[in-house]
Amino acid sequence: MTMPDYDLIIVGGGMAGASLAYALKNTSLSIAMIEACNFQQDQQPSYDDRGIALAYGSQRIFEAMGIWSQLAPHCTAITDIHISDRGHFGVTRLSAQAEKVPALGQVVTAKALGHVLNNAISQQHNLNVISPATVVDLTQQPDGVTLSLDNGKYLSTKLVVAADGSHSTIRQLLGLGAFEKDYQQTAITANISCQRPHNGRAFERFTDTGPIALLPMSDNRCALVWTVQPEQVESILALSDDDFLAQLQQRFGYRLGKLTRVGQRNSYPLKLIHTDQAVQQRIVLIGNAAHSLHPIAGQGFNLGLRDVAALADVLASDHDDCGDARLLHDYQHWRQADQDSVINATSALVALFSNTNPILGHLRAAGLSLLDKIPPAKHLLARKSMGLAQKQPRLGRGISL
Q: Which end of the chain is more exposed for a tag (fewer CB within 10 A), N or C?
């Protein structure tokens, strides 16, 4: 390959892709980001009104990037987490005070996060955003990759980072297999207003159809993720606002008093999609392109952001070739244990708390009660939920987890 057009091309301008671009703003790398939607009009489909739970570790990553001060005004702190199992008495409570941190996490809408990221990268001197455009073919060579776009143009680069979501075009063009597990569950999302103040509390309530999460937001609203059976979705979405709130109230309870208002409702099926071949010759898959998770415990975006931080740290070296196999091996070795741990733990939680066996229900309740009374065990759970339990960086360049 002759001199490439770019050192790095990021395919996908959603939260993971935009975060990686911004994390590399102070490097000497020439970067392009290819986005299928119109970047100037914030049309990226992942930038909707869903509430995103940012773990404390993710807050630290954004602080290290230098963007947290712009993001913080749009966030609501999670000071406490209340975990319960519907129909049983067991409860576990986590608190920022006990963990000696300002907050266990933060909640921000995907729309607000996307707007902050887009504003930031639009002023980035080493980044060229190409949108709307999609990749239709690629050619891997020993010294680079050539991408063919739907507008007839060709772009060459030393490294491609696929951040193009769970239905990744790059993964499909490479012919990479991905393990898929259909959880036979669907998530219904909306913003909910409550009678009582949430006071920064987040709730995870396990039910026989899957977990219900309510995350604190501004104006005493909560971001809802309600997991139901696929055959229930159509009828629940068709309910009037009052009937929807009444049914949710019956499932969640009255810890926040009466649920008074619901915003726009959306739904999406829940699947685990995971490829164990996320590093290829001069190509890396990150975020949902590499691993799309069940929303239980809210780890999906946080895991992807740790991918971003580690890859940015590796690419920020003074190496002449950012697509060198040794650098990509460093990244893969660094991230593998954390990815495997979160994926396995998430799947185990879904299996454990979606089981309707009454004996297992009593055992779960006893386990939650016991966990609440063992400080070291709660501390470990809190650190994992905050994204602080994985191996710390060893390369010492750029972003710190």
A: N
Cα–Cα distance measured from residue 86 to residue 235, given in angstroms and rounded to the nearest whole number = 22
Partners of 194 in the beta sheet? Answer: 259
Orientation angle between helical segments 56-65 and 15-23, nearest 10 degrees: 40
Indicate if the alpha-carbon torsion angle 166, 171, 173, 176 is positive or negative.
negative
Is 209 in a helix, a strand, or coil? coil
Residue with tokens 């940015």: 312
CA dihedral 325, 331, 337, 339 (to 10 degrees): -110
What is the C-alpha separation between 3 and 144, in angstroms, rounded? 10
According to DSSP, residue 229 is labeled -
Tens digit of each residue's pLDDT (9 = 90 or more) over 343-359: 888 887 777 666 565 65
pLDDT of residue 311: 96
DSSP category for residue 187: E
Reduce the DSSP state of residue 59 to 3 states and report it.
helix
This prediction has a pTM of 0.90
Looking at residue 369, its pLDDT comes to 61
The C-alpha atoms of residue 286 and residue 311 are separated, in whole angstroms, by 9
**Element (DSSP H or E) covering residue 99:** helix 96-99
Pair of tokens at residue 345: 């733990």
To the nearest 10 degrees (0 to 180), the angle between helices 358-372 and 325-353 is: 120
What pLDDT digit, counting tens, does each position of 221-252 carry?
Answer: 999 999 999 999 999 999 999 999 999 999 99
Q: Are 171 and 277 in contact (CB under 8 A)?
A: no
- Can the peptide bond before residue 132 be classed as cis, meaning omega within 30 degrees of 0? yes
pLDDT band at 210, cuts 50/70/90? confident
